[in-house]
Each structure stands twice: as C-alpha cells, then as structure tokens.
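>> received
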Amino acid sequence: MSSDSELAMVFVLRNEHTPDGHVAQEDAVDAAVRGMLMILSDRRPAVVAAVEHWVAGRFTKIVKRAHGRLWERVVELDEPLKVRAVVGTADMLVFAPIARADQPPALRAAHVSGLQLESASRASIETGLPVYVNDSLNMTTGKLIAQVCHAVQTFVSIHPRRTALWLEAGGHISLVRGIPNGNHSVMIVDAGQTEVRPGSVTVAID
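>> returned
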C-alpha cells in the first residue's frame, strides 16, 4: 500500500503562537486519547468501516498542529468523520482513518514536525491510567502522543473491565517517566519509521 493510500488517524492540535496559547503536554495527551476513543466507539457505518480497514493495516497515527487561520480552516472542514476534544489547555481535532490522498487541503497543510510541548507538572491524577514513558528516547510531543494512543488502544482491547472503571473515573492519563523492569500488559515496540530506532520500547502500561 502506498503512503498516499495508507489509512491514518489524524490528530490536529491547536497550537497558537501567543503567551496565552500555551498547551500543556499532559492536556494534549489526554485530549488525543479522548478523541481517539470517541472515534473508536463511533458506530456510524462510515466510521466503523474506516476503523476496520485501518486496524487491519498498520493503524498509523499522525499528529499535526495548526494555528491562526489554518486552524480555523481545519475546524471549518465539512468533514463529518471528525471529533473535537478539549481538555484543559488543549483543543484537539481527531479525524477517523483517512488516506493522505483523500485529505482535504487544509488538513494536509497542517504541520507535522516540530510539536514540542512542555509538561505542566500538574499533580498526579489518582484515577489516571499510568503510562510509562521511555524518556531516554527524547521523543517529541507528537511522537509521544502517537505512542500513548497506540498503548491505550491496545489496553482498551484487552482490558474491557479496567477500561470501563478508568473511563468512569474521568479517563485521564498519568505520564510516568521511565519504564520499570518487569512484565507489563502493554508494551509498544516502535517500527522505527520516525525519531527512534526500530525495536525501541516507547511506552508501557501495566
């Protein structure tokens, strides 16, 4: 399958270049996960079909950013297969799996590289789902978001009861720096297409 025809779930974060446009990394991760779960639970036939085809492949996730008029253009897209998730300082649009060749111009124009957000050092949310991050890899925020979403997608598929309890408690993510030794129910091993070496363990969930 060519890169233009391969399906990808696309995340677009509002990233304004103003003092009050600061987005906390934790909020962006929460918003991305929330938006992804909204897409995965959407029972509209077109969304279900797109997700099924996507899961049968590499279930690629692409994280983009936009600001100003470009953000407005993405928001205004007449694209029914998208959702919006707002968490704290983060405003995120998530598009159901779509081929690059089928992306509207505004979506294709959103920036892919360079998303690097700072941690807000927010207090740990007691009910948050701990996701261990391999901080030795120095992943960009965009890469981190994709990896966390990979892990949560797997977690949800194998732990329905724990997922239900976690969502009832607010569905937050607690990022934990460093992956402890031992067994984990979810470990994401990256293919190495961007940023990290093939075979790198990026994130894990117990």
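>> The chain has two domains: 7-109, 129-205.
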